[in-house]
Amino acid sequence: MRSRFWAAATVTFACSIAIGVQAALVAHTGFLTEDFRAFYCAARVASQGADPYHTQPLRTCEIANGQRGVFENVAVTVPAPLPGYAIGAFIPFSRLPFPLAARLWVALGLLAWIACMVTLVRFAGVSWLTALAALVLSLGAASIPLGEIVPPAIAAICACAYFAWRGRAWAAALAAAAAMIEPHLGLPVCVALALWSPPTRLPLGISFAVLAGASLLTLGPATNLEYFTSVLPAHALSEAARDTQFSLTSVLASLGIGDAAAIRAGSLWYLGMLAGGTIFAGRLAKKFRNGAFLACVPPAFAVFGGTFIHVTQIAASVPAAVLFIGYVKPERRALAVVALLLLAVPWITAWSPVMGLAPAFPIGYLAWRYWNGNVRAVLIAAAAAFVLIVGLNRALLSAAATDHASARSHERSSINPDLAEASWSEFARKSSTGNAAAWIVRIPTWAGLAFLLVLLIGDADVRRSAALPSVAPS
Fold first, then answer.
1. Torsion sign across C-alpha atoms 266, 159, 121, 276
2. Considering just the CA atoms, what is the radius of gyration of the chain in Å?
3. Cβ count within 10 A of residue 56
């Protein structure tokens, strides 16, 4: 009992310090709540009848509300590539002074992070400390200081999983619709529910009608059309050379594939992963008689490839990994745990001093929890995490001292200069190296995703056709 107390106290303390120090580092660079600033200004611009996707007046609003740090002497506009209904959701925030709105958004992010842990404990049957260790770095430290929209989206996905597990179809559908605030994460969940759980189709249909109506009221038909035809591909291209991208489009662009082909390939890959995630989610839900798989599995597929995937969005795969470990066959359990350990840490942030030691605590605890207190396994896992993060850190520091010729060698993307993505593309190219080290730090995350998806596919039982009791109407 005493060992559990000290384990809980150590992990909780280490995780709290990690988030605090990471927030201080993000603030020092000027990125603190920077994503929220873009959403806030897009909502303010839209409420004034202007186009929130264009450079002006979006940039004027961002500068007036404290854009600084790395952006201070650079003519860059941080884009807000959200659909109309999501921008509409930020309008109440935009009516407040920015400092107050930012604090409220950070508080909402913290509440969403807590909601993820609370629901994960219930539908995956794990301890709160396991949920904390799995999500503290992947979701908490990676997203909350930036003011990301990811925590509310993943909270909605976890709520959907909880309600599907409880057999509450309407609540699950509404939670899935709420996850559409991050469309490429929420859409696979909605599709899986609609296909495998007929009682969710009506509330999903109503929800999508409401979202469409909100988009039209917020932006109007022309700007909504612009979002799908111009903004989405432009944003994918603006990030294609960025060192923090995990998308297939980014990989192909780095290999010299043309813009149009890279976007097309990433889009087709996303559709394929959406279909695969939907199919295997249903099969796993049937096999294990747990509707939570319908909500957790599709996002894990969706963040592997596509046109636009940030490290913060990789956290959407963690609930699937935690849930699956409780059902995986014993002979495959070790590999499933390794997948979780790789996904629980945003390795790409190895440049941060806080990442030098912080991963050892959650990874050590998860290893201790899943390998039945085996001290040797704990020490090996923690030491491996430390060695890996130090090695990645040294590689990044060495790369930072080299010339950015690789990043500058890319041709300028053909992005409409009126869009905010035009200046963002220039900033992304100049602030990225595109060298080998920038790709090496992405390998552990890709490996974790690959392990998880292979295990999920391998465990799906395509022969079963029983109904899903856990997503029947309550």
1. negative
2. 21
3. 13
Classified as helix, coil or strand, 310 is strand
Determine the distance from the C-alpha atom of residue 96 to the mean position of all C-alpha atoms in its chain, rounded to a whole number: 27
310: phi then psi, degrees, rounded to nearest 5:
-95, 165
Q: What angle do CA 61, 67, 68 make, to 5 degrees?
A: 155
How confident is the model over 253-272, as pLDDT tens digits?
888 888 889 999 999 999 99
CA of residue 137 relative to chain centroid, distance:
12
pLDDT in tens, 380-401: 776 676 666 666 555 555 555 4
Tokens describing residue 412? 């300028």
Q: What's the predicted TM-score (pTM) here?
A: 0.90
Tokens 């629901």 label which residue? 119
Instruction: Kindly state the tokens that stand for 75.
Output: 């003519």
- The answer to whether the peptide bond before residue 92 is cis (omega within 30 degrees of 0) is no
372-to-77, 199, 344 alpha-carbon distances in Å: 50, 40, 19
Which residue type does 250 have?
S
Tokens of 94: 């935009």
Phi, psi of 463 (to 5 degrees): -85, -20
